[in-house]
Amino acid sequence: MNNNAKDITEEFARRLKNFVYKRISSPQDAEDILQEVYYKIHKNIDELNDAGKLSAWIFQIARNAIHDYYRAHRQEEPFAKPPEPEEVRADENDNKEIAGCLKAMIDHLPDKDRAAIVLTEYKGLTQKELGELLGLSYSGAKSRVQRAQQKLKKMLGECCSLELDRRGNIIAYKLKAKTNPFCNLK
């Protein structure tokens, strides 16, 4: 199938370029990723057994390259750490105090769940944008966010009992037994 490699890149070049450029903000980095994807296509084309899965195979290579790019640049990512608790809310209620616990709880989440929460809650990405960024379907991204939210809710419930107002603001809380490493309330 290697003799069709040139046709493959011509057939998918525009779609592949759009796919990568949507997910990488730097044009130079996007171009580097495209070159890497083309290299991997040409290098591994003989391993593709089912020509009917060609499109899926090519775009999976691109998704993997994009994921590797973000993994390699993790320390430079603007969303690597959630904002400090005082940046979350400055209301005259207990939200600010509980926000300090949430930061510690988010730090205890698995990497995938932490990224889902930080990107959607702190950086304002929609779940659809999260899915596109991580190569997930919309329902997969939605499930990941919901799963992370449930884990946070469970952690918070293990730490303290909350009383909420009608808007969801915390108006009172009672500390439970302090047995969790993420519970830093006094």
TrEMBL record:
InterPro entries named among the record's database cross-references: RNA_pol_sigma-70-like, RNA_pol_sigma-70_dom, RNA_pol_sigma-Z, RNA_pol_sigma70_r2, RNA_pol_sigma70_r4_t2, RNA_pol_sigma_r2, RNA_pol_sigma_r3/r4-like, WH-like_DNA-bd_sf
Record-linked Pfam families: Sigma70_r2 (PF04542), Sigma70_r4_2 (PF08281)
Family recorded in the similarity comment: Belongs to the sigma-70 factor family. ECF subfamily.
Originating species: Anaeroselena agilis
Keyword terms, alphabetized: Sigma factor, Transcription, Transcription regulation
PANTHER family per UniProt: RNA POLYMERASE ECF-TYPE SIGMA FACTO, RNA POLYMERASE SIGMA FACTOR SIGZ
The RNA polymerase sigma factor 70 region 4 type domain, residue ranges: 101-152
Keyword Cell membrane: no
Domain (RNA polymerase sigma-70 region): residue spans on this chain: 10-74
Name under which the protein is recorded: RNA polymerase sigma factor SigZ
